UniProtKB/TrEMBL annotation, chain A:
Transmembrane segments: none annotated. It comes from Streptomyces dioscori. This is Ferritin. Residues 257-309 form the Rubrerythrin diiron-binding domain. Pfam families: Rubrerythrin (PF02915).
From TrEMBL, chain B:
Pfam families: PP-binding. It comes from Streptomyces dioscori. This is Acyl carrier protein. InterPro entries: ACP-like_sf, PP-bd_ACP. Residues 7-82 form the Carrier domain.
Amino acid sequence: MPSPTVTLLTPTTVVSPAERLTVPTFGDVVVDRPAHADWQRYLHELDPTTELAAVWISADAEPLPAVRALRSLTRFDRTRVYVVGPDTAGPVPGWAEALDVEDIVRPAAVAPEGLTTSVELALRAHRALMTDDLYTDFYLDMTFNKIFDWFETTRWDWKEVDLDRIEHGMLDERTVDFLTEAAVIEFGTLPGAHNFLREWQDEVSFSSWALQWGAEESRHSLVQARYLDQIGVKLRSKHALYKREPYPQGDVRSATLMMNVISESRASALYKALAAHISEPVIRKIWRLLARDEARHCRAFSVFMRELCDSNPAHQTAALSMAYIWLADRGNGVKHPAGMFYPHSTSAAGIRRIETIQQDSVDAADAKVMSIVRLLADDDSLETPRDIKAKLRDLARRSGAR
Amino acid sequence: MPRTSVTDIEQTVRRFVAEKLSIEAEAVDLDTDLRSLPRFDSIHALQIVLEIEQHYDIEVENRVVFETSTVRDFAAAIATVIAEAGAEPLS
């Protein structure tokens, strides 16, 4: 990877040769000092592989047109811009915010003794923007903002669940077993949320939604544990602790999201099946609400997944690979993160038991996932996991031919 | 389809497994449990299968991806597919 470049634009008419600077965290950095008169030509002729991380523009070098010239070229959208002038105490001019100027700094910032520190700060800011796959210029343009209201307005209210109205006579041992298993399986939320925040630590949009997701999922264990408590069954907290240890985070975000698309779709189908086979009205209501939650989560995960896949074919391949792995293999029962990743977990067996209530419920869930896969691959012919594997072969062949 | 010996297939599988997992081919014994190899997981298994399919221009069943445990078993499954596709592998 070439060294990042920073540029000091001064009002001189003399072009200085490029220098190299060594910054502790980032290593070698190229420092260009183009002449003011050459600014437009410099920007247009800069090698396309150059990562122009930051620019310092002297206040004496007509900063407004210089910044405009930079921002008019989309490849420099994320380049950090600093205006260098003696007067840093006054209000930042309106155009500075409009053109995404990072700061107004004193000349000492670009003097030899201060330059390394200034470059390090600028590179940190630039790297933060570059590592966010779903970065948008403006906060409210991010997908989190677009789906937030949908989530806020469709969340169930605790008032909808009246635990004092449980019909105890309508409960049997099997229902209590399913309910206990479902509550325990839902404890997988916490390590899942920990991992989301670790895997997306340099990102804002999905991470913000992951907090919403975690808050909703944590209600699933709670509402079922409270129901159990009401009928005299105490849920042990060990299930939420050592039985749900952290697991290694995923390698590719779109693959992690596909895994969650599938598990949410399956969870929704299993809750629907449970609700359809129970007559006790309070738990039926709870399971219907949770089925709706999981279906909402499935859709939201798919929105973030498609956003990543649309921006990068490697994400598409990773997501399709994960879809194949999870849809094609039911040799050891239905895969779900809560049953797969924890050494002490009993959830795989629990999910298998719940699945017995309606054997075709997971088939229906997977059929919905296949419709998401078709959209993702932009291929209406995909019907089965075998078709997904054939698609992956085709994508590999095409990428090998390029 | 060219005739291919089972031994050739085994060596090809070993090479693909080693390349995909970034380990030496010598570390992949014919009877080593693939799941015991570093970094081997379902995604790597799929990637190896896709490369094998492309190499021999065949398609293997889903169960081969998930149930095959050694290079020897994997090569045998591929030899069967090749044979069914019309070219008898040399034994």
